Amino acid sequence: MWPFVQATEAEEKRDKYQSLYNKLDHYYNEYKNKESELLTHQKNYVDAMSTSNKECVTAAIYDTKEADCLVELNKLIAALTDKASIIEGLKTTAKTKYDYYKHKAVQEAAGS
Asked: Is 43 inside any structural domain?
């Protein structure tokens, strides 16, 4: 808005929710990128473990450590997925409120 024009309450809220939506969208994309990176690392790790030479370590120790690493990696992936889901829900709420106040601002402008 121009500094000499007073924004209505609906316009201010619309702008606030649009800004919030944009920030949440940015964070959501960051989480999804991190999740994708971890999935790539997980695949590379599993591929490396299946083709590596197990002769230097006894099979029982090797399999236990491999399983522990995969469990921890899966926990990290699940945590990122959960956070991304929460952010996606917040993003949807912000978009809904933005649409509401956008519509309300248009109605106010038409009524003026």
From this structure: yes
Model pTM above 0.85: no
3-class DSSP state of 58: coil
**Which residues of the chain carry a pLDDT beneath 50?**
1
Which range of residues forms the domain containing residue 104? Answer: 10-52+68-111
- pLDDT tens for 70-87 read 888 889 899 999 999 999
Look at residue 74 and tell me if it is in a domain.
yes
Q: Is residue 5 part of a domain?
A: no
Q: Give ∠ CA 18-20-22 in degrees, rounded to 5.
A: 70
User: What domain count does the chain have?
Assistant: 1
Interatomic CA distance for residues 4 and 101, integer angstroms: 22
Token pair, residue 74, equals: 């899966």
**How far lies 3's CA from each of 7, 41, 100, in Å?**
9, 50, 24
Q: Is residue 103 part of a domain?
A: yes
**Quick one: angle between helices 59-111 and 9-51, nearest 10?**
160
